Amino acid sequence: PSVDCIIDFHTGGDSRYNYPQIRYATAAPDIAELAKVFNPPFIIEKPLISKSLRKIAHEKGIPVLVYEGGESTRLDPFAIKTGLEGISNILYHLEFIKEKPDTSIKNSIEINKTSWIRSRDSGIFKNLKKAGDFVHKNEIIGVLKDVLGENSKNIIARRDAYIIGHNNAPVVNMGDALFHLGWHEEKIKDKRTLSNTK
Prior knowledge:
Elements: E1 6-12, E2 16-24, H1 31-38, E3 42-45, H2 53-59, E4 64-71, H3 77-93, E5 109-111, E6 113-118, E7 123-127, E8 134-135, E9 140-145, E10 152-156, E11 161-167, E12 171-172, E13 177-183
Parallel strand pairs: 1-4, 2-3, 3-5
Antiparallel strand pairs: 2-4, 2-11, 6-13, 7-9, 7-12, 8-11, 9-10, 11-13
């Protein structure tokens, strides 16, 4: 097929905000370079999933980037700007456009491990930390209260990591995803907290 590369655009799910990020599989050829060219705040290595677009494209030798940013049903200017700048960077790199884009330099943070913190109960949720923040192990990052607001439980970070996504829903059910954490096993010393957090 006449395809140089694929960029698949996504937002977070309902009430879930994703800090702008590029996801890619290291198995694909030259994909790490394209991820850096896109220049997002976060670059996340994710394995190929069976029967997915990325997997099928990989089998045909086509690199795929997945851009995640913002939240469904909401227009997020920062996520939109980051996505447009990334597309411009890729088009210039692949020589589709001649003029070099005037885009911001973000010094992308690389991540190769992710995990979710899920709610152990139903109740009223308040996040104390948001996507883009760096958090430390055992730090309180959110609070869950019962429906009467009387009893509360702290949501604790299980490790040093970046929050790459968070839940904006005020009411959550048991098992709901609250925070998406990301880190790099060899580069965790990079502990910047990013701006433009939602």
